[in-house]
Amino acid sequence: MLRVGLTGGIGSGKTTVAHIFEMLGIPVYYSDDAAKQLMNTDPEIRRLLTEEFGNDVYTAQGLLNRAHLASLVFPDPQKLARLNAITHPVTIADSDKWMHRQSTPYAIKEAALLVEAGADQYLDFLIGVTAPENVRIERVMKRDGVSAEQVRHRMQRQMPEEEKMKRCHAVLHNDEQTLLIPQVLQLHQQLLEKAAAIASS
């Protein structure tokens, strides 16, 4: 089975693209959702997060206090790096197990920080989703109810989009000018052919 990564900067439309692939019958592993679940359920992550950020990182009910954790790590690049160092290896291992359970010609791992976390080295093919910066900022402002300045601050913590797209084998343009679905359909066909060629070799 072909292991495919899907990435892009904040507001690029990764989730929209992932949903189109799902409608085509392709399973998608959503790394952010998985990481949130693992932070609540994985004993080792819970221990490390508590040691690193204090007992208040979990509520009295034992659930991750996401707002508190965000208030600690997002203003501090070093703390954010430590959070990523705790969560990324476990999420990568979890996604690898998930990949092995799939039976489709290819499966997709979706992650904003896929390249930054080094997870792309475990994949066979990497798809990038790109959009102009002003479009991305507007999308995130509407989605999250935040200011343009806050969006730009988040963007600064990610690899520059141009550099990230250079790492990808295929790039989808989600600029609200170019139709997105035909791009996905064409790439889907290419991936099916690539998976078939590998399976028959």
Topology:
Blueprint: E1 2-8, H1 14-23, E2 28-30, H2 31-41, H3 43-53, H4 66-73, H5 77-101, E3 106-110, E4 125-130, H6 133-144, H7 148-156, H8 161-166, E5 170-173, H9 180-200
Parallel strand pairs: 1-3, 1-4, 2-3, 4-5
Helix pairs in contact: 2-3, 2-5, 3-5
Structural commentary:
- This protein is an alpha/beta fold and 201 residues long.
- It folds into 2 domains: 1-27 and 106-201, 3-Layer(aba) Sandwich (Rossmann fold), CATH 3.40.50; 32-101, P-loop containing nucleotide triphosphate hydrolases (Rossmann fold), CATH 3.40.50.
- The protein is 56% helix and 12% strand.
- It has 9 helices and 5 strands, in the order E-H-E-H-H-H-H-E-E-H-H-H-E-H.
- Strands 2-3-1-4-5 form a 5-stranded parallel β-sheet, with helices on both faces.
- Helix 2 (31-41) packs across helix 3, helix 2 packs across helix 5 and helix 3 packs antiparallel against helix 5.
- The two termini are 12 Å apart.
- The model has no long low-confidence stretch (mean pLDDT 93).
